[in-house]
Amino acid sequence: MSVAARRMLHPLALGVSFLLSAFHTWPLLSQMKGAVLGGREDVYMNMWHLWWMRQAAWVQPQNPFFAPFLHWPLGAELYWHTLAPAKTLWGVVLLPFMSVETAYNAVLFGSFVLTGYTSWLLLRYLLERAGHGPWIAAAAALAGACVFNFSRYHLNHATAHLNLTALEGMPLYLYCLFRWLDEGKRKWLVGLAVSALYVLLCDYYYLVYIALFSLLWVVAERWRRGPLLSADTVTYTHLTLPTTS
Prior knowledge:
There is one protein chain. The two termini are 27 Å apart. This protein has helices at residues 3-24, 41-59, 85-88, 90-94, 100-129, 134-149, 152-157, 162-165, 169-183, 186-200, 204-225, 233-240; strands at 66-67, 76-77. It has one domain (3-224). The protein has a two-stranded antiparallel sheet with strand order 1-2. By secondary structure, it is mainly alpha-helical. The protein is globular, with a radius of gyration of 21 Å. Helix 2 (41-59) crosses helix 5, helix 5 (100-129) packs across helix 6 (134-149) and helix 10 crosses helix 11.
């Protein structure tokens, strides 16, 4: 496959993810202004998050993780709240041009599009690394991305939990992790750190999941190559970790 063809796969995968996301969340895209997906109590809280992040970050700059008017006059800390700054900070950009309902729908729909694309990136790389041809890898990765993106878990949480709908950071983290382990280039290490930060700013649970996966992957790789606990474990791990370049 030529370099130009490989590059064209990215907008194609993104476009297919957009179309399939529109299909699976329909009629969300046709009712961006008139309704919100779900309509339960948590949805109203998530819309308030968009408004609050704009207030705290732009209108009246202050600590967004402390809301003085909640539980007034004491205020309320939001450090362990499902604030999802990576998603709700979009309120700063979107709310001057649209209603909070439309902004919420746009952010929610964007999570599906991005999850489809990042999971496609990860699966395509893993399939090509396993020896499959680029066209077969791209097509199979698209099918796998659909299974992940439009799973019951993702669609169910989309009706109430914006923070848990934000799955796109985890496939991106794993993509950067495997690229760094395979190539050892500094750009993948930077991507690893940025994607981990993005996951952190979406939901703490997901940060724990990717940390556990990373730990278990390193342990499994060490076990596959010899005794897990031995005198040279530390030395072996140090020598086999990639160096940045």
